């Protein structure tokens, strides 16, 4: 029997011989592969060349025929030679400005962008100013010119003490403390004061001649005059409270009531009518009017009272000299639109007939003696006198 070492095809020997060959060739092949790979990596990454210095980079950038290498980081500082060869790149901003089409930004929002052309302002016409009469203050009055009644009154008016100024000037007129031009100035100032105290809608607490009233159900202006014992015409309440129509009265509305009564004094020498409120030492001056009187001194003198039932709007008239009749609303009616019949209270004037106060269609005759004896007033003034003089109450004193 042959031994295993003598068998050429022994499986064991075959395996044995194979393992021995692997152990001899394996290390050499592995070493060769490692050497080849290491050499390739060495050559690929250029680890065999020394790191260039800054001077070498400058020399290479200047002498190399190839274009300069691309610098990835633009913020990296370059040498003088590189900056000459390569135009400097624009700085990188966090918020770069984008080149957009031309537009006009709001300079407050973006001040860096200027408009291409200056924008011309658009001219507009301002709206017309509307006067607010409820809040517009009265014009400033001049400072007091002296210590007399006029100067003292001006000082009171400047302080808003209108009621005291009215009382002071009324006393000065009644006592003849002011005369001539001073008296005329006092009457003019009183007229301006009473535009507020009497004919304005505001009620002053210290003014005893006016009071506030709240409209109740069923009220009308004429009813208010009657129930509140006012000695004025209801038309005065309409005027004072600025009502376009008397029917515009509303329940709960607060209105101003003027108590009255009003009285008049006519001075024939000066063709002047003075209107007062109240009688005796407590009366207050209201305003003055220029009047026309009878031709040939035909206006009777004395004390008169407004007759009851003789206040007429759009009166008719018969000319006593010719008998010609003028109907109501006739534009040729010499009486105009208002008539107040007067009755004499003195023994010397009780027999006067057809005497009264009225308007006129001849305003040029105001300030002259041209009527048949009656007292004439201009349109716009006769209306107010008609409204303040009450039937059976108001008196008219005619003096030479």
First-to-last CA distance? 191 Å
The helix content, as a percent range, equals: 25-40%
CATH architecture of the domain at 262-399: Beta Barrel
Helix tally? 9
The name CATH uses for the topology of the domain at 262-399 is L,D-transpeptidase catalytic domain-like
Radius of gyration: 57 Å
Nutshell version of this structure?
This protein is α+β, with helices and mostly antiparallel strands and 400 residues long. The protein has 9 helices and 14 strands. The strands form 4 sheets. It has an 8-stranded mixed sheet with strand order 5-4-3-14-7-10-11-13, with helices on both faces. The protein has a two-stranded antiparallel ribbon with strand order 1-2. Strands 6-12 form a two-stranded parallel sheet.
Can you walk through the features of this model?
The chain has 400 residues and is an alpha+beta fold. Among the domains are: 148-195, no CATH class; 198-260, LysM domain (Membrane-bound Lytic Murein Transglycosylase D, Chain A, Roll), CATH 3.10.350; 262-399, L,D-transpeptidase catalytic domain-like (Beta Barrel), CATH 2.40.440. It contains nine helices and 14 strands. The protein has helices at 11-44, 54-63, 80-85, 149-158, 162-174, 180-197, 221-227, 234-240, 382-388; strands at 210-214, 254-258, 262-267, 272-277, 284-290, 293-294, 302-313, 317-318, 325-326, 338-344, 356-358, 369-371, 375-376, 395-399. The strands form four sheets. The protein has an eight-stranded mixed sheet with strand order 5-4-3-14-7-10-11-13, with helices on both faces. A two-stranded antiparallel sheet has the order 1-2. Strands 6-12 form a two-stranded parallel ribbon. A hairpin with a 4-residue loop joins strand 3 (262-267) and strand 4. Mean pLDDT is 77; it is low at 1-24 and 49-144.
């Amino acid at each position: 029997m042959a031994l295993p070492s003598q068998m050429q095809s022994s499986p064991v020997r075959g395996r044995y011989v194979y393992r021995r060959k692997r152990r001899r060739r394996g290390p050499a092949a592995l070493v060769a592969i490692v050497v080849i790979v290491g050499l390739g990596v060495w050559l690929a990454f250029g680890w065999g060349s020394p790191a260039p210095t800054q001077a070498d980079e400058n020399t290479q950038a200047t002498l190399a025929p190839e274009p300069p290498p691309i610098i990835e980081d633009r913020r990296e500082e370059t040498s003088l030679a590189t900056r000459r060869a390569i135009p400097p790149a624009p700085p990188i901003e966090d918020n770069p400005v984008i080149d957009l089409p031309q537009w006009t930004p709001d300079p407050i929002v973006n001040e860096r962008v200027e408009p291409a052309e200056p924008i011309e302002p658009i001219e507009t016409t301002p709206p017309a100013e509307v006067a607010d009469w409820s809040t517009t203050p009265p014009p400033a009055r001049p400072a007091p010119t002296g210590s007399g009644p006029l100067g003292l009154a001006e000082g009171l008016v400047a302080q808003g003490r209108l009621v005291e100024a009215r009382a002071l000037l009324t006393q000065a007129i009644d006592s003849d403390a002011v005369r001539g031009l001073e008296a005329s100035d006092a009457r003019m100032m009183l007229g301006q004061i009473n535009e507020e105290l009497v004919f304005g809608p505001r009620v002053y607490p210290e003014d005893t001649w006016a009071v506030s009233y709240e409209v109740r159900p069923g009220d009308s202006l004429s009813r208010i005059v009657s129930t509140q014992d006012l000695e004025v015409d209801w038309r005065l309440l309409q005027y004072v409270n600025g009502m376009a129509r008397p029917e515009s009265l509303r329940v709960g509305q607060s209105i101003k009531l003027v108590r009255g009564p009003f009285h008049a004094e006519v001075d024939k020498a000066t063709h002047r009518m003075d209107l007062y409120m109240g009688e005796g030492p407590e009366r207050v001056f209201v305003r003055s009017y220029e009047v026309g009187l009878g031709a040939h001194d035909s206006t009777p003198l004395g004390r008169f009272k407004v007759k009851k039932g003789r206040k007429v709007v759009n009166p008719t008239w018969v000319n006593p000299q010719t008998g010609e009749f003028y109907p109501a609303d006739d534009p040729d009616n010499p009486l105009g639109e208002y008539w107040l019949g007067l009755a004499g209270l003195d023994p010397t004037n009780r027999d006067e007939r057809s005497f009264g106060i009225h308007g006129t269609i001849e305003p040029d005759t105001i300030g002259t003696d041209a009527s048949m004896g009656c007292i004439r007033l201009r349109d716009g003034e006769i209306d107010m006198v008609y409204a303040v003089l009450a039937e059976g109450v108001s008196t008219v004193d005619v003096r030479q």
